[in-house]
Amino acid sequence: MTTVLIDGNNFYASCEQAMDPALRERPLVILSNNDGCVIARNSKAKSLKISMGQPLFKIRGTLESLGVEIRSSNYALYGDMSRRFMTLLKDHCEELEIYSIDEAFAKVKRPASKDLHLWAKNLRTLVYQSLGLPIAIGIGTNKTQAKIANHLAKTIAHHAGLFDFEVVHNSEYWLELIAIENIWGIGPKLAHWCRMKGIKNALQLRDMPSSQLKAKCGVVGLRLQSELKGISCLPIITKQKKKKETCVSKSFKHSITSLNHLKQAIATYTVLASEKLRKQQQFAGTITVFIRTSSFTPSFYSQSATERLNMHTNDTSILLATSLRLAEKVFQPNHLLRKAGVIMQDLINNDYLQLHLLQKYSCEKESRRERLMQTIDKLNKRYGRNTVTWATCGLNPKWSMRRDYLSAAATTQLTQIPIAKA
Q1: Who's near 218: CB < 8 A, 6+ residues apart?
Q2: Rg of the chain over CA atoms, in angstroms?
Q3: Residue 268 domain-assigned?
Q4: Pair 153, 99 in one domain
Q5: Do 378 and 251 lie in a common domain?
Q6: Which domain holds residue 148?
Q7: Are residues 101 and 38 in the same domain?
Q8: Are residues 62 and 176 in the same domain?
Q9: First to last CA, the chain
């Protein structure tokens, strides 16, 4: 079987365009948390030389004069579109490794003709018809070659989003086109070291003395070099590893100074974290709460507190009680707090639970609590987040994250489904 990398083009922007087709004809940028910086662009925005990471407050006037559409990050939309995308891919690949929100490695059997172009073309058409997402497909002997092929599929227009590295006649020509910085696994420091050695592209990296590469980055470098030579070193990982920690943290729209507002924020993040734990089928044994002011203020303040639970759990009420106690410990008045977060640690699988010798445990009570949590999760999933929540989270808090350009959660909330008028 051959290795394939399937990647969503300009994924965040493509998700927004799928929900609002009018955006396809206009330049579009997506902003980071609190509408801070540009973190994604569509092809039209890229053609206007709008760079990644530019703060909105510096380029707002420029964006308006160029007619650029602006959207706040809509993570509910992107996450749901990613889930649908990966579900489609699983039906058309023998093995699938979900690498990121918009990327997946796969194993695919070549037909008798050895030509995968028809399969790739049909898959690209299916994904676009089903989700409105354009994708690029790179095919190679291993993961590194598939990454290179995917890069070529997106950068060379006449390949139309598809490149098969295994069937090209002159592979060295294509390797020479790949700059050292664009090779998967090569970071800025290693790229700089390579250029100091005269290694400027993938072909030169493949053919350089292995002893030099091993001395610099050990077996990782040798593995990368072997993959460039066509040897498979990195397997497809179909089963995702369980998380060791789960963190929910966000910056505030406005600085907060009161304990009440801090508790609302910590409670909101704890509710989100407990939902993630149940989705991951895990229990938490330790909770950490942290807060900090802006790093640009003269009197910088940062504090955290940790507490270990008597028994592992993903029950929101138990986690809330603990996190609110920790919020009281870390809070200090007269500090302009800009960010807070909750970290669930010491995670274990919920298939088993280690009981506490000195703490009473009732199977009937735990079963009722589990059913209650499941019911709340189902209601929030069906009717939208915070349909049922805890009062301590507050209603429409003023400190919540700035998202002035947020689009509708059209795939996850019934009330926000677009209406077509005929």
Answers
A1: none
A2: 25
A3: yes
A4: yes
A5: yes
A6: 2-7+78-117+138-228
A7: no
A8: no
A9: 48
- pLDDT one-digit tens code per residue, 278-335: 999 999 999 999 999 988 888 899 999 999 999 999 999 999 999 999 999 999 988 9
Q: Which two tokens stand for residue 144?
A: 């590194």
Average pLDDT over residues 166-184: 92
pTM comes to: 0.86
Is there a single domain that holds both residue 367 and residue 290? yes
Contacts of 129 (CB under 8 A, 6+ apart): none
CA distance 319 to 342: 10
Amino acid 254: pLDDT = 87
The per-residue pLDDT for 401 is 85
Number of domains within the chain: 3
Helix axes of 259-280 and 316-330: crossing angle, nearest 10 degrees: 140
Same-domain check for residues 144 and 220: yes
Cα gap 327→263, rounded to integer Å: 6
Q: What is the CATH number of the domain that holds 47?
A: 3.40.1170.60
| Same domain? 251 vs 364 | yes
**What confidence category does residue 356 fall into, taking pLDDT thresholds of 50, 70 and 90?**
confident
In a domain, 122, yes or no: no
Distance (Å, whole) CA 384 – CA 387: 6
Q: Is residue 49 part of a domain?
A: yes
CATH number at residue 292: 3.30.1490.100
Say whether both 27 and 44 belong to one domain: yes
> SS3 for the chain, per residue?
CEEEEEEECCHHHHHHHHHCHHHHHCCEEEECHHHCEEEEECHHHHHCCCCCCCEHHHHHHHHHHHCCEEEECCHHHHHHHHHHHHHHHHCCCCEEEECCCCEEEEEECCCCCCCCHHHHHHHHHHHHHHHCCCEEEEEECCHHHHHHHHHHHHHCHHHCCEEECCCCCCHHHHHHHCEHHHCCCCCHHHHHHHHHCCCCEHHHHHHCCHHHHHHHHHHHHHHHHHHHCCCCCCCCCCCCCCCCCEEEEEEEEEEECCHHHHHHHHHHHHHHHHHHHHHHCEEEEEEEEEEEECCCCCCCCEEEEEEEEEEEECCHHHHHHHHHHHHHHHCCCCCCEEEEEEEEECCEECCCCCCCCCCCCCHHHHHHHHHHHHHHHHHHHHHCCCCCCCHHHCCCCCCCCCCCCCCCCCCCCHHHCCCCCC
| Closest to 98 (Cα-Cα) out of 111, 85, 109 | 85
Q: Give pLDDT tens digits for 370-401.
A: 999 999 999 988 887 888 999 999 888 888 88
